[in-house]
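FAQ: What does the model actually see?

It sees only this:
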Amino acid sequence: MKYLTLLFFSFCFYTLWAQDGPQVLEILDPRMEILISKNAKIEILAEGFGWAEGPVWIPELNGILFSDVPNNKAYLWTEKKGLSLFLYPSGMTNHAPNNKSAGSNGLGLDSDGNLILCQHGDRSISRLNSWFFEEPKYDVLVDRFNGKWLNSPNDLVFDKQGSIYFTDPPYGLRNGDEDDLKELNFNGVFKWSDREEVKLVEKNMSLPNGIALSLDEKTAYVANSDPANDIIMAFDVLEDGFSNGRIFFDGNILSQTREGLFDGLKMHSSGIIFATGPGGVLLLDSMGVHLGTIMPGKKTANCSFDKDEQYLYLTSTDVLARVKLN
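And it is asked to produce this:
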């Protein structure tokens, strides 16, 4: 975390104005109002990004960190200082053969407070190591499986033992599945730890994206961001992989009339899943019942909570926004 603090104080800050938007809630189940008021509004915090993604709360800096994927940057927003450029480059450092300028995507903090990044451009899961001469340095944790380059790690989640589960669709490759640089003939979900290295836990999803674990870590949820099969899958978590794959929520009907596909997933301490997807952020209970949707009016890539779950932060296309929670 000392390097995160160094980065924070190494940039000049400026504050963007914020505004309240209209009421944008679809309430389908009264349980939704336990988590969010029916009068809640979306507050725009910053805008003008290429594609905002991967938000994560940084307790030590009391702010939200997020990726601007196509611009190879990561930004920090705090209540006190507003927006600042935090990492550049964030995920494309020419570590890997690539033909598309893409930075970091999903971000997370491990149990020691280290920043872990899904790096599209470098086709790796990496850890922020240090920052010298205005350029961050990264330690690559994993970039290959069975000797072949990963596609472009997208999103990640940690279990209580410190292992990282991450998804690996081809979005960081210019031509996706047809790209000449793609070495794996599938888009997988992997598990990595410094004890066991990398394991393939699921290979049968077309475009795995967001990933979350249930509170007891017995179930994994993985979003499939495929316009031909827009679903969230659930799996039993075993020591050596996933099993019993089944559809947890089918969004194909919703995606016919609403913008966006299933993308980021976050687990609330109540056990409710906040899933970015058709129409915005869907709230789903443990049985896959749709409680309602937060609808910002544009495609929403991902979301995250602050430390005390007072706010839900949204990365929606070109903006960073938030909604007050109960």
